[in-house]
Amino acid sequence: MSDLSAFGFVMPHWFYWGWLAVMPLIMMALDRWLSQRGVEAIDKNAEANQKLQQIEAELKKSVDYSDASNGFTKAVDWISEKSGVFISFWTVNAVVFYFFEVVMRYLFNQPTIWVHEASFLLFGMQYLMAGAFALLHGAHVRVDVVYNFLPLRGRVGMDIFTSMFFFMFAIALMITSWTFLENSYSMDERTVETWGIQYWPVKGVMLLGSTLLFLAGLSKLLKDITIFIKLGREQHA
């Protein structure tokens, strides 16, 4: 990074990436510490979690996956859940960043050169990483004109059939992400803005997010197959 002293405080690249990696762990540990001591922590995601549960219940239409899980699917679902919680704390950073920008711009007449870029990179990575969590909770958008009129086994069968389109997308995304990461790292790709932060970590998050999405889809497919077979046996019992 070139000499940027004339622009006031400029967040170092290493601190930005390090903080995004460590900050959610600190927040999760703090929440756990408060919970263990009986302190009622403020759950800023309570309303969002309630809406997710409502969406999940509506989309799953009484499909019970509790008896369809195995060691692999439980591990993948745990990772999907924790990754979603992890990146949810990134939003706090964007709020702090833009607050800092407003103060510097309108009170000190010294706008920053890094806040906007840091925030849109953060939101892009958050979007990529949220796919597995959203799939786990049934929050992805689906065309349900026909789906809702099918019986329970029919809906599960529809999910199994359409999963091939999902895996085509997920595999293509993983391959493309790997190519992007490899090229970006080899050329030390950076943004064209004055801040000039590295792009390859973003491409790395893209690869990680697509991999988690693929695993979450595989977990759901295995559970759907188990449920489909179970419902078929119950119908013929």
What would you say this structure looks like, in words?
- The structure is a single chain.
- It is elongated, with a radius of gyration of 22 Å.
- The protein has one domain (about 15-20, about 55-235).
- It has eight helices and no strands.
- The mean pLDDT is about 85.
- The chain starts with 12 loop residues before the first helix and ends with a helix.
- It is mostly helical and about 240 residues long.
Computed structural class: mainly alpha
Q: Work out the radius of gyration.
A: 22 Å
Strand residues, percent: under 5%
Low-confidence spans: none
Q: What characteristic shape results from the CA principal axes?
A: elongated
Order of helices and strands: HHHHHHHH
Distance between the termini: 70 Å
**Number of helical stretches of at least 4 residues:** 8
Number of domains: 1
By DSSP, the count of extended strands is 0
Helix content: over 70%
Could you state the oligomeric state of the chains shown?
single chain
Q: Strand count, sense and closure of the main sheet?
A: none
> What is the mean predicted local confidence, pLDDT?
86
